[in-house]
Amino acid sequence: MATPKVLVTGYGGFLGGAVVRQLLEAGFQVRGLARGDYPQWVALGVEPLRGDITDPALVRAAVAGCDAVVHTAALAGVWGPWSKYFSVNVQATQDLLEAARAAGCRALVHTSSPSVTFAASHQSGCDETAPYPQRWLCHYPHTKALAEQAVLRAGRDGTIRTCALRPHLIWGLGDPHLMPRVVQRTRQGRLRRVGSGTNLIDIVHVDNAARAHVLAVQQLLSGDDRICGEAFFITDGRPLECWKWITQILEAAGVPVPSRSISYPMAYRLGGILEMVYRLLGLQREPPMTRFVAAQLALDHYFSIDKGRRLLNYQPNPDIVQRLADCRSWLRSLNA
After folding, report:
1. Over the stretch 47-63, which tens digit does the pLDDT of each residue have?
2. Is 302 a known active-site residue?
3. Fewer beta carbons below 10 Å: N end or C end of the chain?
4. Is pLDDT at 175 greater than 80 in this prediction?
5. Is 212 helix (H, G, I), strand (E, B) or coil?
6. What is the H or E stretch that residue 178 is in?
7. Which of 11, 38, 85, 140 is catalytic?
8. Phi, psi angles (nearest 5°) of residue 268
9. Is residue 334 part of a domain?
């Protein structure tokens, strides 16, 4: 039997690269689609395709001859025009699904987000039965929810096996987003504790998140339909106090921990005002506070991963302390 080939969209990204590495270690052939060039992966045998995920012709070429797809490419962030978020997160996902089905791909694993169920209220140990909210605080979770729903529908209609994974606050050595953003905002004097800081949050190490994607690919290709059309929260399985986690990052980076704080109601109102002003002025840069960021900093958002443990055999490595220690030198380089 031929070795299965997997297309990884966004393979040059933090999660995408970790998925590629683990797929190669598991014996898969890998094709990567991204906007940049990544010779480190080509040297390891990855077949590269360069281009934009919003190009339907390129997407059709990318899925040709592949047995499965891992779709990590997305437009993240909390600010920007609806049209751009919709094009990248929704339309491109729908085009990818259509192309994969037409090409005879057997499986597609979609990288979603726990924010698809976030309604600006506490998420305290919720599971995958949590509904999509009726209102949205920014375009990213809204468009990710629309994309996820399309993926799950495709899995349930029997034309292609699919599932959606919801990794939460991906971190680890080389993280280009979460930890550098915390360090940068602190150095700029723009970080404050919102609320008490004792709200519980989940995080997931990039290796754990990637492992969940590989497990999903293996199970879908094996014909196991128990995960088909299903969504899964993916975390390290150990909720942390939000401000304690931020403090650990800053201490590892050698950055003084801010002492200033703001109440959650005040931060939420400030975020709403700044969003309105930025829209009226047509400003493209992200406001220093938004309602979504205020809510994420002040409210619980941690999840049950029992479904993933049971159906994916997902068992996260919980050694957060050691893995953060492994990031210390790199974090200090961010503060150099």
Report:
1. 999 999 999 999 999 99
2. no
3. N
4. yes
5. helix
6. helix 178-187
7. 140
8. -65, -45
9. no
